[in-house]
Amino acid sequence: MKIIWFSEIKWSYLRTRKQHILSNFDNADEILFIEPLSFNLKNKFNISIEKNIKYVTVPQVQNSDIIFINYLINFLPFKWFLKKISKFLINKILNRSNFLPDIIITSNVFWIDYLIEMKNKLNLNIIYDCNDNPLAFPNSRNKNIYFNKTLDYADKIIVPFKSYINFIPKQYHSKIKIISNGVDSNLISSSNQEENSIIDEFVSNNFLFTDIRRKTSSNIVMYIGSIDTRLDFNLLEKVVCDLQEIKFVFIGDIKRQVTKIFKKVKTHDNVYHINSINYNEIGKYLNYAKVCIIPFEKNNLSKFILPNKIFEYSILEKPFVLTNFNPELKYLSSELLIADTYFEFSKLILEQIENPKDTQKLKTFASNFEWKEISSQYRSIILDNLEK
Questions:
Q1: Which of 154, 161, 278, 324 could, after both became Cys, cross-link 306 (CB 3.0–4.6 A)?
Q2: What is the per-residue pLDDT across 115-158, written as a single tens digit (0 to 9) for each?
Q3: Residue 81 forms beta bridges with which residues?
Q4: All domains of the chain in start order, with CATH
């Protein structure tokens, strides 16, 4: 089976839903992953290969958090020219690699005009992997048009959780299939002993953890993930002030839009930051945490999402507290500790430090969401669409 996937993020940026799903597909499958141009991350204009997955950078019309660039890519003559260049590059890649796809998958609505041409020319089905709400991203011009057109031309729409249906118009609900996010318990636990010793040595020598161990308190609260506009920085300010005897460690890249506001949070003596780490290092760092957090603000970006962190913290038996950014998450598991206010958030952290809940139940819950099984379900959906 040959699959072409048009992505909104880079293959090598973070290990997210699409990387987990595709990495667990059958080794006989051939996958071509089209990633967008980035002004911050390394671009791969020549095809790179990871096992049975080829990935390459192709520029296309997408939003940017840089105002001038966002204006430029939406300037009509430039936009027209960029579309022509993108189309030429994709066709060149397909011809050179002799890659004739069996199906199109997209998680990037800004590709839809080209995908419609491809669908009609090659008589292919389109699967839309709707893992975020594209209408919630700032600076995206004409996002409603691209989103609705993608919904209209998609033969199947896959979402990670039932709450995602809330921003998809009812006329498309018959196309929807729910396939959850998940966790790779083997990879996240980092079972390779040699690799473990390297990570142990790094963590032990890391100035941040050395500094923490010099403090009187060994209680560490940890967040691992992108530090971006989803975070509730007002809540974090209050919580780190309330719990000054507790050390808060944030691990992840800081997005440009929130640099200033997160810098203010970091001025507190009990707040520490480490840049993004590899997926298989997560378990080693979480060994230092007493409690984990998912402090998302309820906004258009977060109110429907299902974070992988829920499964990652759970499989490693780490109690965690999350804000009530998506009210439907309470139906996912009764084990989730959800706070409605910053006061309740702080209270739950303290409770879990002093008297942690039965974390074996968290592990049992997360074990039902292994990426390997989820990937198998996803591949079955693709095969079903090939037969139609």
A1: 161
A2: 999 999 999 999 999 999 988 876 666 788 999 999 999 999 99
A3: none
A4: 2-182+370-386 (3.40.50.2000), 185-369 (3.40.50.2000)
Spell 216-240 as b/e; 16+ CB within 10 A means b. Answer: eeebbbbbbbbbbbbbbbebbbbbb
Residue type, 176: I
Residue 254 carries which DSSP code? B
Which tokens go with 354?
A: 């002093």
**Cα-trace Rg, the chain:** 22
First to last CA, the chain: 15
- Which amino acid belongs to residue 341? T
Report whether 9 contacts 22 (CB < 8 A).
Answer: no
Note whether 203 and 209 are within 8 A (CB).
Answer: yes
**pTM of the predicted protein model:** 0.88
Tokens of residue 340, six digits: 């409605």
Identify the band that residue 216 occupies on the pLDDT scale cut at 50, 70 and 90: very low
- Alpha-carbon span 232 to 64, nearest angstrom: 22
Kindly state the tokens that stand for 365: 């819950």
* Tokens read off for 160: 């990670």
Cα 380 to Cα 374: distance, rounded to the nearest angstrom: 10
Q: Is 307 helix (H, G, I), strand (E, B) or coil?
A: coil
Cα–Cα dist 212/221, whole Å: 12
